[in-house]
Amino acid sequence: MASQAIASRRGARTVRRQMWWKILILSVLVALLFLYIVVVQFCGAGLQCRATHSLEHVNGRDCLFTCTT
Predict the structure, then answer these.
(1) According to the model, what pLDDT value does residue 48 have?
(2) What is the DSSP string of 7-51?
(3) CB 49 within 8 A of CB 43
(4) Does the pTM exceed 0.70?
(5) DSSP 3-state assignment of 59?
(6) Could you report the per-residue pLDDT of 21-61, keeping only the tens digit for each?
(7) What's the DSSP call for residue 61?
(8) Which helix (H) or strand (E) holds 68?
């Protein structure tokens, strides 16, 4: 009976670790997607932009980047 309890705990620990890695990978992917969406908002889908040190007025919006086409 005790050996079954130990095996059950080990199995639960293994599953918990596997789920932790899956959640970590998914979280990183979601963060990268969010970062991509934020960058696309400033630079457009072509990702052609250069950073400036001052706010500039581009396409009717104030932005931190000068967007080029």
Answers:
(1) 62
(2) HHHHHHHHHHHHHHHHHHHHHHHHHHHHHHHHHHHHHTTTT-EEE
(3) yes
(4) no
(5) coil
(6) 999 999 999 999 999 888 888 877 665 665 554 445 555 55
(7) E
(8) none
Judge whether 66 and 58 are in contact, CB under 8 Å.
Answer: yes
Q: Find where tokens 């639960």 sit.
A: 12
Residue 56 makes CB contacts below 8 A (sequence gap 6+) with 62, 63, 65, 66
Q: Quick one: average pLDDT of 8-22? A: 91
Per the DSSP assignment, residues forming a β-bridge with 56 are 63
- Find the helix or strand (DSSP H, E) in which 60 lies: none
Which one is predicted more confidently, 23 or 65? 23
* Beta carbons of 29 and 22 less than 8 angstroms apart: no
